[in-house]
Design brief:
By secondary structure, this protein is an alpha/beta fold. The protein contains five helices and eight strands; from the N terminus they run αβαββαβαβββαβ.
Length: 185
């Protein structure tokens, strides 16, 4: 992977690939692949094969959540996983400050700052997944287990339940305050 002006990868992401010893093909598209739907249409894959890299703030501390493109993050489940009092979606400024990338181009690794990473187990449902390569026009493919490993992610279940399914009810740990024990249904 080269990092000159002709390389389709964002220079920061290209440097991360080089540091990790990864040789992945970066695909650049003339139209934006900012949303999971746009990326799936450009690539010709299912929306669930797209990995969204989403930044949240857990008690004010940034956390990255990797989620398949067809699902939504259940913020209460993230809160429960992190034993946080409050989890909110980060704004565009916080995303750029934390990762070095704009929303719609955030890759799963290669960020400006080291951030805790949670990966929803749903991304393991495919042989290959696609993620942003640092810009709203670029993507790369990788097997999901490698992607999780390179991101340093912890596998969790943080997707919103599907219609008609009941959310997991978890038993609280001894000594855990009641307000952080269970996700609300």
């Amino acid at each position: 992977m080269t990092t000159d002006e002709t390389s389709p990868a964002h220079p920061q992401f290209a440097a991360a690939l080089q540091e990790l010893g990864l040789d992945v093909e970066i695909r650049r598209f003339p139209d934006e692949t900012r949303t999971a739907q746009q990326a799936a249409e450009a690539i010709g894959c299912q929306v669930s094969e797209i990995v969204k890299s989403l930044i949240f703030a857990a008690d004010g501390v940034p956390v990255l959540v990797l989620m398949d493109g067809a699902s939504r993050v259940d913020v209460e489940r993230v809160r429960w996983e992190l034993c946080a009092a409050k989890v909110t979606r980060a704004d565009a400024k916080a995303v750029r400050e934390t990762t070095g990338y704009a929303i719609g181009g955030v890759p799963p690794f290669g960020h400006r700052t080291r951030t805790r990473v949670l990966a929803d187990r749903g991304i393991l449902d495919h042989d290959v997944v696609w993620a942003a390569a640092g810009t709203p026009h670029t993507v790369f493919a990788m097997d999901p287990k490698s992607l999780v490993a390179h991101a340093g992610a912890t596998l969790v279940d943080v997707r919103e339940p599907s219609e008609g399914t009941r959310a997991d009810v978890r038993e609280p740990s001894e000594g855990t305050p009641a307000d952080v024990r269970e996700p609300s249904a």
